[in-house]
Structures are given as structure tokens and as C-alpha cells.
Design a protein that fits this description.
The chain is an all-alpha fold and 176 residues long. It has 2 domains: 8-58, no CATH class; 78-175, no CATH class. It is 56% helix and 2% strand. Strand 1 (8-9) and strand 2 form a beta hairpin. The structure holds iron/sulfur cluster (SF4) (2 copies). One iron/sulfur cluster (SF4) binds at residues 72-74, 76, 78, 119-125, 135-136, 139.
Length: 176
Amino acid sequence: MGTSMGLEPSGGDGCPFRVNDEKYIVENLKTCENALPGSMTADELATIDLIAGTYKRLMKVDCTGCGYCTPCPFGVNIPRCFSLSINYHMGFKHLMNRARYGIELMGEMGRTPGHAALCKNCGKCMKACPQHIMIPEELKKVSKTLGGFRTKMMLPPFRLMFHTLQMARKIKKGNN
Ligand code: SF4
Ligand code: SF4
């Protein structure tokens, strides 16, 4: 086949790759025009199987981020819990995803908490999920991986940085 698909690393929103430019769509359409049944070699098919298998193994939850499960009556930010967990397990910026979970979802820096441990297992979200994900069960795993001691340990320096910045802003404002 030879033509590369127009895939680019994403900005860390849960989707590891995306087609984000018209030129990629044109390129991909051209590829599809020439890609007749049986045109891939055994090696190419084996490579696709390998990649698909690796993704399947690393993707701990099949969440697409569609958001149909929201809002959770107990405030769990379900899509964000899953996107950070997926990125974490895929190996993209391990520490960064742990820190983001702590800062974004655990009520740091004035944010509304939305972490996985807030789940009360009411089951409302599961009825809406087109992927039929056992959301409360999966959230327990997210909480175990990302909501524990190692994440909490990372937060004090961020807190200090946040308060220092706030103080600096106040001082600057007072001097003006
Ligand atoms: S099962 Fe958990 S995450 Fe789902 S709606 Fe109920 S409390 Fe929210
Ligand atoms: S409805 Fe299901 S797939 Fe969509 S964001 Fe919620 S958990 Fe993910």
C-alpha cells in the first residue's frame, strides 16, 4: 500500500490519534480509492493485527468520550476519568496524567471535584452508555490507579505553586 494514513498525535484529550486537517482527509480518500480487497500484503495485515492487539491490550476501557453518560448526579466527570486513565495506561506522559487527575478532578485549585471515588454506584450512567461499559466497576479501577497516595503526594508542590502565583498576582495588583 505504501501511503501513510494522516494520523497525528492528539493534544491529550483521550484520543491518541486523530485526522485533524483537510489535507489528511484528501490523502486518506486517495488511499481508500486504491485500496482494493486483497491489496494488502500478509506482512501489512500482520502489522495491523499487531497494532490492533496492542491497542486492545492497553485500552483498559472502551470509552469514546461521547459524554452520553453525563451528568453524574454525584459529580463524577466520567469521560475525563476515563480519558486520563486511558492515556495513563497507553503510556503517554505517565506523571502528567497522574498530576492532571489530581489537579483537575480531586478538587485542587478551586476546581469542582469530579474524581472516580465520588461514584455511588447508582447505575444511571450505565443506561446511557452506548459502549455498555460497566462504569462503576471501571471507575473503581481508575480510582485505585490514579486516585491514591502516589497522586496525593504530587499535589502539595502544585498547591504551593498555585498559592505563590495567586499571591504574586495580588501583590502586583496592589502595586498598580
Ligand atoms: S453509577 Fe456512579 S458514575 Fe454513574 S451516575 Fe451513578 S454515581 Fe455517577
Ligand atoms: S457514555 Fe460511555 S463511551 Fe460515552 S463517555 Fe460515557 S462512559 Fe464513555
